């Protein structure tokens, strides 16, 4: 099976902070792949903008090195690479001052109807000033869009300030707030699963679902990002954005259409229906300690007194008709046993088991939507143990690993950024967060953080390579439930 490619219009994409980490690691490789797959039309251009003393040739060199590193020389098609590098240009510009804007102006010819995207791959404190400069220097035409990415604030007040700064210069319909989880193939598949199959909807509610577990486990640590991470922690880094977006897509009502307005309205309703977290008893924070000659979190972050969590588990509840009484348990952490992300929907027990004796009690069905690795969906079922010897029950899984089911083991799963950048060019905001969603997420998170800060709460230690702190097990045990295994 071959992925279908829908070409986009010729466009101009300006990447501010083009020499930085995100651009090199994600954007440049994503754009290269789009060209390789035939989605980048003739005439599309990518303009790097940064303060560095650099010219077009220097930027092409930087991009070429980034492709070697992040696409890999084995996968790199030299012809495509050279065509791709030919699309790149560079403008030296100090985004916070007036310097260099006329150069950018000169590099962007005014072609009516041509999409023009400004990707702000820079620290959030520059979002407002750059947006303002774009608007003031006359670069914001009707086809202009601005792309920003987290951290979108540190709390509700700062998120509001950021939104105000952006909307002072651009219309909401021109602002693309990236949450790269929304670009993951399986996350989009969650919507296909729920809204393109009639099978699940009648069961998708408190009458039939016992609880939902959302896990984003990582085996890596903070990877040299200590200076940033230590000021945010897992709650702000992962829960406020990625995990709550996953929760929204799992819990939202069917939108009337798969379009930005209806989809985002439904997600917003979920965020606004989240019940306040029920005290610190519903939250467990953890921090990995040293072991097996690997440094602790505090050592990696170079802050021996750090109270920042590298792990968090919490119980969220949604106060509406559909989900009343169904807990959504969220957990995420670094340096855990394996890299594994999934949404697991556990259905209720059968009301009465007709099967006698040992092994006669069927395990509840679980629908697991696996984001990574091996993207796919499994439904665990109870079946008869095959063969003679009486009616014994056993568990079995209906397994739909996408790569296999689609006969696409050789098909490269596109990175989330590939999809999202092309959506920006197409002008499709469905998979981007609206300003009010970001604020609603902070409004729910802020009191939880305030409570642990007020109590000077210290995260519980956990071992590197474990499933997290013991207390996190208790969070579910108390409710008579248990976490699913973290395994690759
Ligand atoms: C980022 C977080 O947003 O997502 C990182 O800042 C985290 O801390 C990363 O490692 C996880 O993304 P993925 O796509 O590897 O699951």
Explain how this protein is built.
The chain is of the alpha/beta class and 488 residues long. The chain contains 15 helices and 15 strands. The strands form 2 sheets. A 9-stranded mixed β-sheet has the order 14-13-12-11-7-10-9-8-15, with helices on both faces. The chain has a 6-stranded parallel β-sheet with strand order 3-2-1-4-5-6, with helices on both faces. Helix 1 (21-36) packs across helix 2, helix 1 packs across helix 13 and helix 9 crosses helix 10. The mean pLDDT is 93. The structure holds 6-O-phosphono-beta-D-glucopyranose. 6-O-phosphono-beta-D-glucopyranose (BG6) binds next to loops.
Summarize the structure.
Helix content is 34%, strand content 19%. The protein is built from 15 helices and 15 strands.
Question: Which labels suit this protein?
Answer:
488 residues, alpha/beta, 9-stranded mixed beta sheet, 6-stranded parallel beta sheet, 15 helices, 15 strands, 34% helix, 19% strand, globular, binds 6-O-phosphono-beta-D-glucopyranose
Fraction of residues in helices?
25-40%
Q: Major sheet: size, sense and barrel closure? A: 9 strands, mixed
- Number of contiguous helices: 15
Strand content: 15-25%
The radius of gyration computed from the alpha-carbon positions, rounded to a whole number of angstroms, is 24 Å
């Amino acid at each position: 099976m071959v992925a279908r490619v829908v070409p986009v219009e010729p466009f101009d994409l300006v990447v501010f902070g083009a020499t930085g980490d995100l651009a090199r690691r994600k954007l440049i490789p994503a754009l290269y792949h789009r060209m390789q797959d035939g989605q980048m039309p003739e005439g599309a251009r990518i303009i790097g903008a940064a303060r560095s003393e650099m010219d077009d040739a220097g930027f092409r060199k930087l991009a070429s090195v980034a492709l070697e590193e992040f696409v890999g020389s084995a996968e790199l098609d030299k012809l495509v690479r050279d065509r791709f590098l030919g699309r790149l240009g560079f403008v030296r510009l100090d985004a916070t001052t007036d310097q260099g804007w006329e150069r950018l102006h000169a590099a962007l010819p005014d072609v009516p109807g041509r999409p023009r995207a400004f990707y702000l791959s820079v620290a959030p404190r520059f979002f407002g000033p750059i947006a303002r400069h774009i608007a003031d220097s006359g670069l914001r035409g009707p086809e202009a869009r601005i792309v920003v990415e987290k951290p979108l604030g540190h709390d509700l007040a700062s998120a509001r300030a950021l939104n105000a700064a952006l909307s002072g210069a651009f219309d909401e319909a021109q602002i693309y707030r990236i949450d790269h989880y929304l670009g993951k193939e399986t996350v989009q598949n969650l919507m296909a699963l729920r809204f393109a199959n009639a099978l699940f909807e009648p069961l998708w509610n408190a009458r039939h679902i016992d609880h939902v577990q959302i896990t984003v486990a990582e085996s890596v640590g903070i990877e040299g990002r200590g200076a940033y991470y230590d000021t945010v922690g897992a709650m702000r880094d992962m829960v406020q954005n990625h995990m709550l977006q996953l929760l929204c897509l799992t819990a939202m009502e069917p939108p009337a259409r798969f379009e930005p307005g209806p989809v985002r309205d439904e997600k917003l309703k979920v965020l606004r229906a989240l019940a306040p977290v029920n005290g610190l008893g519903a939250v467990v924070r953890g921090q990995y300690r040293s072991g097996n000659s690997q440094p602790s979190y505090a050592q990696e972050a170079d802050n021996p007194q750090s109270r920042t969590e590298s792990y968090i588990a919490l119980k969220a509840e949604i106060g509406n008709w559909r989900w009343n009484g169904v807990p959504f348990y969220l957990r995420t952490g670094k340096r855990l046993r394996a890299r594994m992300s999934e949404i697991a929907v556990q259905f209720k027990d059968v009301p009465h088991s007709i099967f006698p004796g040992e092994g006669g009690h069927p395990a509840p069905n679980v629908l697991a939507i696996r984001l990574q690795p091996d993207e796919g969906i499994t439904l665990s079922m109870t079946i008869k143990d095959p063969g003679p010897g009486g009616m014994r029950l056993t568990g079995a899984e209906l397994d739909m690993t996408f790569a296999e089911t689609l006969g696409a083991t050789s098909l490269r799963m596109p990175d989330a950024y590939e999809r999202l950048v092309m959506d920006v060019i197409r002008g499709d905001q469905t998979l981007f967060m609206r300003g009010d969603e970001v604020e609603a997420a902070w409004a729910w998170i802020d009191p939880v953080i305030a409570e642990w800060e007020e109590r000077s709460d210290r995260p519980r230690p956990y071992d590197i390579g474990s499933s997290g702190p013991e207390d996190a097990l208790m969070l579910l045990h108390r409710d008579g439930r248990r976490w699913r295994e973290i395994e690759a």
